[in-house]
Write a structure and sequence with these properties.
mainly beta; five-stranded antiparallel beta sheet; 29% strand; globular
């Protein structure tokens, strides 16, 4: 099975249809001029109904690619920092477990290994060990894949496989301390998901199990709350491993095992999946793993599916984040990157792992305009113009790819 292809859910798990997405009339030439012609084929997904397990989401704010891949519409992000659960994207490598696991959330058990006193803990017990809250960008490794002209296999996300979410739970460091601390030589933190595995397959070939450097424990948490409510089943409830600054696949849903290990897991999703491999080359353990996020931004309004703009004053706004570092600066261009102006960061600063809203007020004359944003993080890293070409379409931070073409009448 292709690592990017989720297991299908039955057709009976579907409900009401979505409206279709529309591109701006006349924008194709401007997109092609900046190398963005692939945008329309990647983002113009066929309208599909929301699956039953996420029927509570806002159909008008989402694009359904499959039963386990649902994208937030670019125009739905709005101007508030936090992404509502009803709009947040879905990317599940396996179908969500049965809803019975959230019937008694406090009874959920997780095995903690690689510590002085390894044992199983219930969620009820975890809640006695500590409490922290963090706002962070949750982003699929393939967000921006839809802009790759090579059309890699996998969901053709544009910008909507991301959101800024508030998580509450117990710090992993507090759990480790309560259980006697890490054993010597443990270089990795390995999380294992609790999804039901298909019969007849080698578990290591399908299990969602990922390793990150043990240093990520500093800000990691075992979270039971998202945006002020119990984590929905679709987003990993009752318990999810949260690793701020790392891509979504490393934030293990339904976590049932957290192990500090001397080596990375040999599960296929780690050893061969989510690797940065050259185009046409299969992933393998010698290639870089998709883990830390880097500086990125995009414009949400005006958006490609907006109506034609009237000439004159316009507020160009979007989001920017730095992965492991805070955002220091955002620039906006209205001429496809020929010239840049500093945008203003607006709204509350919720910490280095959250995204920042930015805005540039300007005046646009009639005609075609290509709007782009470019972020710089606190370490001086600047969002690149070009994508990193790779076989699976991972880690696309290109400001050119994320630019939008608009028509001003």
């Amino acid at each position: 099975m292709n690592q990017h292809d989720p297991l299908p859910l039955p057709a009976s798990a579907l409900r009401a249809p979505l409206s279709r997405r529309h591109l701006l009339a006349g924008s194709a030439n401007a997109l092609a001029a900046l190398g963005l012609a692939s945008w329309s084929s990647g983002a113009a997904a066929q309208a599909k109904p929301l699956p039953a397990y996420v029927a509570w989401k806002d159909a008008g704010s989402t694009i359904v690619h499959s039963a386990t891949t649902i994208e937030t519409r670019r125009s739905a992000f709005g101007t508030s920092v936090i992404t509502p659960a009803e709009q947040l994207y879905i990317r599940n490598n396996l179908p969500a477990p049965d809803a019975s696991i959230v019937a008694d959330r406090d009874a959920w058990e997780i095995s903690i290994e690689g510590v002085g006193n390894p044992r199983k803990l219930t969620l009820r017990e975890l809640k006695t060990l500590g409490l922290e809250t963090v706002a962070m960008v949750l982003q699929c490794s393939g967000n921006g894949r839809g802009f790759f002209p090579s059309k890699p296999s996998g969901t053709p996300w544009t910008v909507g496989a991301a959101g800024c979410v508030v998580w509450s739970g117990v710090p992993v460091r507090a759990v480790a301390e309560a259980l006697g601390g890490l054993e010597g030589g443990m270089r990795f933190m390995t999380g294992t998901g609790g999804e039901k595995l298909p019969e007849g397959l080698d578990p290591k070939s399908i299990v969602v199990e990922r390793s990150v450097p043990a240093s990520a424990m500093a800000d990691a948490m075992l979270a039971w709350e998202m945006n002020g409510a119990a984590i929905p089943l679709a987003h990993g409830g009752p318990l999810r491993l949260i690793v701020p600054g790392y891509t979504g696949v490393n934030n293990i849903k339904y976590i049932k095992r957290l192990a500090f290990t001397a080596q990375e897991t040999d599960a296929k999703i780690m050893s061969h999946g989510y690797r940065i491999s050259p185009p046409g080359v299969q992933g393998d353990p010698n290639q870089p793993s998709v883990q830390e996020m880097t500086v990125k931004s995009w414009i949400n309004s005006p958006s490609p599916d907006s109506a034609a703009l009237g000439k004159g004053r316009v507020q160009i706004h979007g989001v920017a984040f730095g992965g492991l570092h805070a955002v220091r600066r955002v620039e906006v261009s209205v001429d496809g990157g020929k010239t840049w102006a500093d945008a203003r960061l607006v709204g509350p600063d919720l910490g280095k792992y959250a995204w920042r809203q930015f805005v540039l007020e300007t005046r646009l004359p009639a005609g075609q305009h290509v709007l782009a944003s470019r972020a710089t993080d606190a370490m001086g890293n600047v969002q690149p113009q070009q994508r990193l070409e790779n076989a699976a379409g991972y880690n696309n931070t290109s400001w050119a790819d994320h630019a939008v073409a608009v028509k001003v009448a």
